[in-house]
Amino acid sequence: MLIQSAIALAALVLVTAGPSYAQPLRSTSIPSSLADDEKRLMPEVMTDFYGSFDKQTGCWITKHEAVGPDVTYCMKPVRLDVRSSTGRKILFVVAGGQKVNEEGEPFGSHADAGVLGLIVLTPNGANLGIVATNLYEPYGSWGLSPERDSVSFERLGPNSAYGWIAKWHEQHTGGDYTSADVYGVIGDSVKLLTSITSYWTNAQLNWRPPTEISAKLVFETHSSAGSFYPLIMRVSGVYRGSAFRGSYRLVFDKNSLTYLAPNSMPDEIKPDPFIALPEPGTLSLASKGTDHDRPVSMGPVSMGIIVNFTTRIVQFRVYGLFYHEKITGLDDARVAFGEGEESGLIGTIDRMTGDTQINTVNGNSVYSLQCKPVQF
Prior knowledge:
There is one protein chain. This protein is mainly beta. About 5% of the residues lie in helices and about 55% in strands. The protein has helices spanning about 5-10, 40-50; strands at about 25-30, 55, 60-65, 70-85, 90-100, 115-125, 125-140, 150-155, 160-170, 175-185, 190-200, 210-220, 230-240, 240-255, 260, 275, 280-290, 300-310, 315-320, 320-330, 335, 345-350, 355-360, 365-375. Strands 8-9-10-11-12-13-14-15-16 form a 9-stranded mixed beta sheet, with no helix packed on it. An 8-stranded antiparallel β-barrel has the order 17-18-19-20-21-22-23-24. It has a 7-stranded antiparallel beta sheet with strand order 1-7-6-5-4-3-2.
């Protein structure tokens, strides 16, 4: 069995989201008395987390060293939602911004993502305390800055588990799609739980047969889930020239800390990272590691790999595209896949350690991953 010891370790991962919120990490300089005064509260929150207000640009100017020493953002408050949990008032704050140059002018290329700031606070004596944060989460492209109507506040699970869905639209090289990114509180952090394509079309490319599909997202609130509710995607439209309807149930996995999805859904709307729900005759792997074209400062990459022993196919996603590669070698120790003739990719999975390499046929490494089997 693939890396049984790793399975045991994965089972020890603690997910605190859902049942209750953690005690505050530390106090801020923001008076608790402002919790009921949004107009006065939000500037104080922005100053505490993002520095001084700049009158000329009308925003809070901040640098984020993890992205790069020269990266500066113009940040503004986006929305505030307040809920109660176990007798405590919980404040959910969203900030948003965009990358700017030394003159305060925004960048606007496709590679310039905006930024989301997701902050959870609660009264902690005289001042507000920090429950969880994610201060610099990439958002969209083309220098896009999130607006209030693009970020919705949602109940994600039982016992007052709340979070956000942030939507953004993309048109690039003929592609046209809308992404819906789901964020929830896990421990003392706000994490991306899944990124779903809620609209996709190739109409701009005039491809035949055409595809134009959209998905409505609904949380299964009657579920007995312990952390986050299952997510239902109700899909409709035209898929490869034919009328299409489908309903797909995504389930949150406490080990990989993301939503697992059925492999039967169309590739165009599969979540990112796509990690498949286990099916008979297949091995579904949750993988994390390095993408050698991705800056180290952006953190590890996550992805799913499916090994189908019946069809002898390995499925995975590289740079947004799904690959279905033939198994070229299989024994108790290793799975080898990819002939390199069409995709130019080959790879190996060590069935004992989970070490996985995906390379180009000329020997250049694309991904170096550590994989664990999904147990659900």
